[in-house]
Amino acid sequence: VELRRMRRDDIFFLMNGDHGDLHRVDRRQRQMCIRDSTVDEALPKVDQFIDRALLQGKEKIQIIHGIGSGRLRRAIGNYLNTHRGVKQFAPAEAQKGGAGVTVVELR
């Protein structure tokens, strides 16, 4: 989707309180990219993204965290295990990102 064709209402911003950085997420999309984020930066973004998805009635979302050392993937998994709005989660299919993407089914 081209940004110049989007209405302002179609985009919301997640604020990283420590650095004031903005992380853009298209409301119509069901995925969020947190590659190159630290665990401390990523978890609040993921929390806000899940809350927003729940409010919008989405059933599935994807979190793109990349493969790297696996630290971010494990931290996201640990967090998702405790989130009441998460029904289940698993790595994406190999052709859709595999271990670098977590598919989350919401309640």
- Classify the secondary structure makeup into a structural class: alpha+beta
Mean pLDDT: 81
N-to-C SSE string, H for helix and E for strand: EEEHEHEE
Q: Could you describe the largest sheet, including whether it forms a barrel? A: 4 strands, mixed
Helix content percent band? 25-40%
Radius of gyration: 13 Å
Count of helix runs: 2
The N- to C-terminal Cα distance equals 28 Å
Oligomer: single chain
Instruction: Give, in spatial order, the strands making up the sheet with the most strands.
Output: 3-4-6-5
DSSP, total strands: 6
Which overall shape is indicated by the principal axes computed on the Cα atoms?
Answer: globular
- Could you tell me the strand content as a percent range? 25-35%
The low-pLDDT segments are 1-23
Defining traits:
107 residues; alpha+beta; 4-stranded mixed beta sheet; 6 strands; disordered N terminus
Word description of this protein:
This protein is of the alpha+beta class and 107 residues long. 27% of the residues lie in helices and 30% in strands. The chain contains 2 helices and 6 strands. It has helices spanning 39-55, 71-82, and strands spanning 11-16, 21-26, 31-33, 60-64, 86-91, 101-106. The strands form 2 sheets. A 4-stranded mixed sheet has the order 3-4-6-5, covered by helices on one side. A two-stranded antiparallel ribbon has the order 1-2. The longest helix is centred in the middle third of the chain and has 17 residues, at 39-55. The chain is globular and about 30 Å long. Residues 1-23 have low confidence and may be disordered.
